[in-house]
Amino acid sequence: MLVLDKLSAGYGSTQVLREVTMAVPAGSVVALLGANGAGKTTLLRTVSGLIKPMSGRVTLDGEDITGRAPHQLVARGLCHVPEGRGVFPALTVADNLLVQSPDGQTAEATELAIEAFPRLGQRLTQVAGTMSGGEQQMLALARAYVQSPSLVLLDEVSMGLAPKIVDEIFEFLERLALRGASLLLVEQYVTRALAVCDYVYLLNKGSVAFAGEPAELDAEEVFASYTGA
């Protein structure tokens, strides 16, 4: 279980997160919603060690991981898929998968990636940067998949993609959850996020404005969060 306890963070002297407390239970899908600038990306970056918190604690399965380096968190089973196609554009699809594969398991990792997104099997020798945006996002997600992470942070993975590709990505996220991974999902398609999540948090100006099950969330609360009201 991932637990954030009164977590505050930001950039330099600018505070973005304000004593955020939340949890991602093991094996669950948690949606993190809110307007641009609410602090969603900052929260993910703080959890994954890219930003040092100003105060508060982050624990994973009872272990304090506050301020740990990203590579240490990867070793603990955490995977962060950032906004904006997290691939190596100059490498082939096969080499992108090789970089993420556990030692000596390249063939198995490639097989897993193709199982997740079959069209990648037709692109193994293609340079990743020459693929479509949707295919690059599939590759970014497949790279996470082959690591068999226990916790995956996903930042706007459907942004700018065609509806058919978005459908494929959400089907993949459901399969990833069924494999036992916990997901913390930042997503622009609110209805899609609410359809797959077990629990939802709304951030407004860096603070938690709502925490509960999707069925408890009022449309007015969503509107207020996204308009900053």
UniProtKB/TrEMBL annotation:
Residues 2-229 form the ABC transporter domain. It comes from the Bacteria. GO terms for molecular function: ATP binding; ATP hydrolysis activity; branched-chain amino acid transmembrane transporter activity. CDD domains: ABC_TM1139_LivF_branched. GO terms for biological process: L-amino acid transport. Coiled coil: none annotated. The keyword Lipoprotein does not apply. SMART domains: AAA (SM00382). It holds the Pfam family ABC_tran. InterPro entries: AAA+_ATPase, ABC_transporter-like_ATP-bd, ABC_transporter-like_CS, BCAA_Transport_ATP-bd_LivF, P-loop_NTPase. Keywords: Amino-acid transport, ATP-binding, Nucleotide-binding, Transport. The keyword ATP-binding applies. Belongs to the ABC transporter superfamily. This is ABC transporter ATP-binding protein. It comes from Nocardioides marmoriginsengisoli.
